[in-house]
Amino acid sequence: MGERITITQISSPSSKIHIREQKGYFQRIRTTMNSLLVLLFLFTPFISYQGRQAILFNISEQQFIFFGTTLWPQDFTILAWIFIAAAFILFFATVFWGRVWCGFLCPQTAWTFMFVWVETRLEGSRNQRITLDKAPWSFSKFYKRAGKHLLWGIIALLTGCSFIAYFIPARTLYPEIFTFSANVWSNTWVWFFALCTYLNAGWMREQMCLHCCPYSRFQSVMFDANTKTVTYDTSRGESRGPRKRKQATDLGDCVDCHLCVDVCPTGIDIRNGLQYECINCGACIDACNQAMEKFDYAPNLISYISENSLQNETKPIFTSLKFIGYGVASLIMLAVIMMDIASRDDIQLNVIRDRQNLYRETLDSKIENSYTLKIRNKTQERRHYQISIDNQHIYQLVGDTQMVILPGEQLDYPVTVLAKLDRLISSRSPVNFTIREVSTLETKDNWVSQASNFFSPL
């Protein structure tokens, strides 16, 4: 597979690529998936759950809310595992389907094609846009360009608002932005991401894929002879050349119509072999099949096919070590995520001893130690907790052992532990604190404990 990979770029980096609008099987799939991705991104912040935004990264309060589950900084290992698992799943898919993520799910691709759609509606087809570029400035050219950039700006602003709405509640952010009453930081971040969207999807486009995205540089190491990628069948297509329909010819099936290049969002010629610039969007497949149909030739001169299949070698991909390795790694990461979630507690407890006095002796020959219990309610509900201590025949808690903690609140709760000196066996004895929900005292389902030390003069 590595022999077919080149780094040839057909278009000059300085030349503007005008993408020809293409319809077909793969473009319907891409458009559907891109549309679902954009709609999900735009409207997810407006989903409410239990009276609050369902998904919210609340940076000011250092919490991530996901449908009633709250993750605190201590729980962010779960997010780390999720990102690692997503990476292995992407690698696993790449071994089988190549850069299918780039062509059908990447936000850069989705927003680029959205901006191209707007450009096509206002400025016309590919040839019309090229002609408009070369034409001198006129009123017609001005209002077409002004309308295009205005719509691009609106889409970019909505994108910036949607992104920041995952960090600031959407029902607060949108009215503030569009009534110009948002604070400086909200405005700064919204307009920053709006500008990034405008530049990336409107101006840079393929340059992001070619020069900024690291995935294009290392994805080829995941390929093998079983990987299905967008491939031109050289043995069938060459020698290429133009001809009339139903004309008898000794040429190959490629009619050299150049449509595969015109529809390519990165401006490459797939006939030159697999190139790192190819994002596997399938546009060239649809364009080529359209040409093959007109000439009554068999379809799939360009198709998703592996090197082994192209050479009529049947070798199951399940025998690939990369396929097995990435698959096993993905399953392991998913298992780690499930175990991490299952072991997560809704209560956080941190026991801090009084560091100024190791112990104090009372008038009735008892020893007391002071502690501060930092108890956090990690849920989004008001909870009722009770403190208990092990070895109650030795230790005694002084004061109220029950408290109510508000959603997401951390309570610093001072407690004193007493012990009779004659019942202690050493100057440093273990003591274990337990925090439990009052509603679960019988079932013992929701509780957390932490050990500390009890000091005495022995």
Task: Characterise the protein shown here.
By secondary structure, the chain is α+β, with helices and mostly antiparallel strands. The protein has a domain at 347-455: Immunoglobulin-like, CATH 2.60.40.10. Helix content is 40%, strand content 20%. The chain has helices spanning 25-43, 77-97, 100-104, 107-123, 126-134, 139-164, 170-178, 184-204, 206-212, 215-218, 234-237, 259-262, 283-294, 307-310, 321-342; strands at 5-6, 48-49, 52-53, 55-58, 63-66, 69-71, 229-232, 274-275, 302-305, 347-353, 360-361, 366-377, 383-389, 395-398, 402-405, 410-420, 428-437, 447-455. The strands form six sheets. Strands 10, 11, 12, 14 and 16 form a five-stranded antiparallel beta sheet that branches. Strands 15-13-17-18 form a four-stranded antiparallel beta sheet, with no helix packed on it. Strands 4-5-6 form a three-stranded antiparallel beta sheet, with no helix packed on it. β2 and β3 form a beta hairpin. It is elongated, with a radius of gyration of 32 Å. Residues 1-14 have low confidence and may be disordered.
CATH topology-level name of the domain at 347-455 = Immunoglobulin-like
Number of beta-strand segments:
18
Measured as a percent range, the helix fraction is 40-55%
**Whole-number radius of gyration?**
32 Å
CATH superfamily of the domain at 347-455: Immunoglobulins
Compute the number of helices: 15
**Main sheet makeup:** 5 strands, antiparallel
Average pLDDT, all residues: 88
Structural class: alpha+beta
Distance between the ends: 75 Å
What does the overall shape look like? elongated
Question: Residue ranges: pLDDT <50 for 5 or more in a row?
Answer: 1-14
Pfam family, one: FixG_C
Domain 4Fe-4S ferredoxin-type: 245-273
Transmembrane segments: 33-51, 78-98, 150-168, 180-201, 323-342
Keywords: 4Fe-4S, Electron transport, Iron, Iron-sulfur, Membrane, Metal-binding, Transmembrane, Transmembrane helix, Transport
